[in-house]
Amino acid sequence: MLTQEENERLTRVGPGTPMGALMRRYWQPVAAASEMSERWTKSVRLLGESLVLFKDRSGRFGLIEEACPHRRASFLYGIPQADGIRCPYHGWQFDGTGKCLDQPNEPADSTFKDRVKIAGYPVEERGGLLWAYMGPLPAPNVPPLAGIDSPHAIRLLGSAVIPCNWLQIMENSVDAVHTEWLHGHLFEFVLEHKNFKTKFTRKHLKTAFDEFPYGIIKRRVIEGHTEEGDDWKIGHPVVFPTTLLVGNASEEACHMRYQFRVPMDDTHTLHLWYHVIVPPAELTIPAHLAGTVHTYDVPYTDERGGYFLDSIHAQDIMAWITQGPIADRSLEALGSTDRGVTVYRNMLRRELKRIENGEDPMNVFRGAEPETMELPLEFERTQGDLSPDGARGEGFAITNLRAMFSRHEGRFCPLGPEIVDVFVQHRQREPAGVA
Ligand code: FES
Ligand SMILES: [Fe+2]
């Protein structure tokens, strides 16, 4: 349980708040670069600020305050220039740092433009994503996440705006037993109503939440398994502050499924599912699948507002949203399996302290040669995914891809069947190389 005051301190991210200051120390993914190939601007709500991402005619990206300081028209409809963008209303021109470069209808000798400034934040491209940084300069490096720079990969980006605070989404990632209920018993109950009776839930025997240099590794042993299983021995990581990695590696593919929880404001979170699927060296990915980030929207309700409870992502989202716009933690009653929640909150408190002391918080990288964040990937997962496809006798990566494109948010990615097919055909051609 938290006091109201502590709940506010840990959840609110707008300008001037302690948690907002901590979140501003991290690059936040705001779009796929490919989204900007057919458009010049995109509306971005980030850390309580309304912004516009734009591309100028020199191909540079900028992220500036949405409202023009002249008379408040939106730069979303601005006119891109060789340097920066002009307001659509009276043509004032700004560059990506928010500096006013021109006011076309002011007298030629006017110095007014030198006194007009708007917010402008650095934008960088990495892994096919556009990242924005709103913290104190100089900016650190974009996080060197494992696999992000893989030259030979299929990349997908699903996105949804979730109308709730980011912290309840992150707390879900350090809550191992919810999978047994939300993705187990509830799932079985939902399938029962579709006349598909099945039992796949298995009880958690043991969970652990261990700090490691980049965040927290969660581990579990479920019924029928032992501490020798990858779920316990390797586990999967929460990368501080707002990233989850649920991936798997095998001879057939290495699939990194990142989930980025981008705090838009106190009560909205941009949820991004970023997939990097790295095939084995001998498999050449068809050109139209490689070389860009394929984006798709991720719905989680039907047209009447009912959650898609036969899908794992929508089960989670239902839980997050029903906790309230900002979960009232003064009313919660944490039990023994909520230890991960406490570990994560303590980590937030510790890193808040570090910035109050003028230090960089964890996972801020500044070297000229950025290190790679080596993150653990399980070879074999036993919980979280149903495994009826195992009966097909297919390899582990293919089983997981099928699951991803049918029971997770990936079912809304139109390329799913084609991607599975690339790996299935490769397996049929080269069965010997596959476990
Ligand atoms: S409102 Fe932008 S130039 Fe006038
Ligand atoms: Fe979940």
Can you walk me through this structure?
This protein has two domains: 28-132, Rieske [2Fe-2S] iron-sulphur domain (Rieske Iron-sulfur Protein); 154-433, Naphthalene 1,2-dioxygenase Alpha Subunit, Chain A, domain 1, CATH 3.90.380. Helix content is 22%, strand content 24%. It has helices spanning 4-11, 18-23, 166-173, 178-192, 230-233, 312-322, 339-356, 396-407, 416-429, and strands at residues 28-32, 41-46, 49-55, 61-65, 79-80, 85-86, 93-94, 100-102, 120-121, 123-126, 129-132, 154-162, 204-212, 215-222, 236-239, 243-245, 248-249, 254-265, 268-278, 293-297. Strands 12, 13, 14, 15, 16, 17, 18, 19 and 20 form a nine-stranded mixed sheet that branches. Strand 15 (236-239) and strand 16 (243-245) form a beta hairpin. Helix 8 (396-407) packs antiparallel against helix 9 (416-429). The radius of gyration is 23 Å and the shape is globular. The termini are far apart. The site of fe (ii) ion has 6 residues, from helix 4.
List keywords for this structure.
nine-stranded mixed β-sheet, Naphthalene 1,2-dioxygenase Alpha Subunit, Chain A, domain 1, 20 strands, Rieske Iron-sulfur Protein, globular, binds FE2/S2 (inorganic) cluster, 9 helices, alpha+beta, about 425 residues, binds fe (ii) ion, four-stranded antiparallel β-sheet
